[in-house]
Amino acid sequence: MKVALLSETYFPHINGVTTHIKTLKDGLTALGHEVLVVTASPDAKKHYIKDGVLYCPAIRLKNIYGFGVSNPYSRTRLKLLGEFNPDIIHVHNEFSMGLFGIYAAKKLNKTLVYTLHTSYDDYIYYVMPKVLARAGNKILNKYLGMYANKSKAIVGPSEKCFEYIKKASHKKKVRILPNSVEMSLFDPEKVDEKEVEALKEELNIPKNAFIACFVGRVANEKSIDVTIKYLAKTLQKDDNIYFVVIGDGPALDDYKELAKSLNILDKIRFTGRVEHENLPVYYMMSKLYLTSSLSEMNSISMLEAMAMGLPVLQRIDEINKNQIQEGKNRLSF
């Protein structure tokens, strides 16, 4: 079978959708299927295919992580996709590539599959002022309903996806397929203890410290401020406890200023961007995965941490509360 995976972002961008698509691509390929990733690339001057990826020229969005948006109605892209001749066109984002997926599926008479990765209520502030967010969410729900209507199948990583599609005034069944982890990479036995000690030294953390980590986009929807404020209230100066925030994003400087204003900056480390293949040593350094985010469908970072043996301390998300087991591999607040 031939499958085209359409996404606004792909490597070198690092995010949950990118990681999901790579894992899906590798898994399908290992099963003998042919896969073509179609993605927007601000660095591409023309459409070209390399290593199973069709890169499409795009305009860079500086305010949204440098992602790109392409023309959703490209004859060149349609021709190249037609030459690949996919059995399934699988859309993973709802913007220029999503619209192109709907257009291409109709033109090429192919089956369209749609995966909803994101609870967009938490992201509407990126594109409109807060005062317009309520109206914006209604428009967005109708827009997502269009994808549901055009698709042969809807896939989502958690029950939250079903609830979100239902809210978008659509009753089509959602197939729940949880996110997965590349277990060959996230294997505790493959991490050298010397690398762990070197990382602690690089981050200026004592060897015997208790370290909690969070991995993800450093942005408002991740509610890292909730964690920082709580730690500021509870940690004592002599507590040998540190919180490591692994990732980059638009709120990085704001969170650094918050930690500084609450006199807890000495207990927090902000690493900035870390390549996906380098994450295992960061998890191995830690004793706990700590998150206050309520915006996740099925956090890949949390699953990777669990694969590395970490328990989770998680702000309770009612819809997703059954993803992990209270008292066994999770405590919640």
Any key phrases for this structure?
alpha/beta; 21% strand; 2 domains; globular; 6-stranded parallel sheet; single chain; 8-stranded mixed sheet; 16 strands; Rossmann fold
Describe what you observe in this structure.
The protein has 333 residues and is of the alpha/beta class. It folds into 2 domains: 2-176, Glycogen Phosphorylase B (Rossmann fold, 3-Layer(aba) Sandwich); 188-332, Glycogen Phosphorylase B (Rossmann fold), CATH 3.40.50. It is built from 10 helices and 16 strands. The longest helix has 18 residues, at 133-150. The mean pLDDT is 89.
The gist of it:
With 333 residues, the protein is of the alpha/beta class.
How much of the polypeptide forms β-strand, as a percent range?
A: 15-25%
Mean pLDDT: 89
Fraction of residues in helix = 25-40%
Q: What profile does the largest beta sheet have? A: 8 strands, mixed
CATH topology of the largest domain: Rossmann fold
User: How do the strands line up in the largest sheet?
Assistant: 3-4-2-1-7-8-9-10
What spatial form do the alpha-carbon principal axes imply? Answer: globular
How many strands?
16
Q: Please tell me the CATH architecture of the largest domain by its name.
A: 3-Layer(aba) Sandwich
Count of helical stretches? 10
Structural class: alpha/beta
What's the CATH class label of the largest domain?
Answer: Alpha Beta
Determine the N-to-C terminus distance. Answer: 45 Å
Rounded Rg:
21 Å
- Spans where pLDDT lies below 50 across 5 or more residues: none
Q: How many structural domains can be distinguished in the coordinates?
A: 2
Q: What is the assigned CATH homologous superfamily of the largest domain?
A: Glycogen Phosphorylase B
Report the order of strands and helices. EHEEEEEHEHEHEHEHEHEHEHEHEE
